[in-house]
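In response to reviewer comment 3 from the previous cycle, which asked for concrete evidence that the modeling workflow produces usable outputs, we include below a single protein chain processed end to end. The sequence was submitted unchanged, and the resulting structure tokens are shown without manual editing.
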Amino acid sequence: MKTFTDSTLMPFGKHKGMPLGEVPEGYLRWLGAQDWMYEQRELGEYIEAKLQAAKVQAPVKRQPSNTKSRGPRLKSSFKDFLKTLD
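The workflow returned the following structure tokens.
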């Protein structure tokens, strides 16, 4: 049974040979969601622990109360952009 740490090299894939501690979080999330990861139990446990730690350490992003939400404006801008592609 192999123990995975931040210094263990990624054994396969896009980031093969990179220390696991340097593999982008988004890639770890994607990798952890793959059905075949059950075959890589120890790596899956490392990924789960790493993502849990990142979730706990991530600061809560709050929008300042004196500004308006940009959601609808950005959404409509994206829709306008898509119309230009037609």
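Residues 20-85 form one domain. We consider this sufficient to address the reviewer's concern, and the full set will be provided in the supplementary archive.
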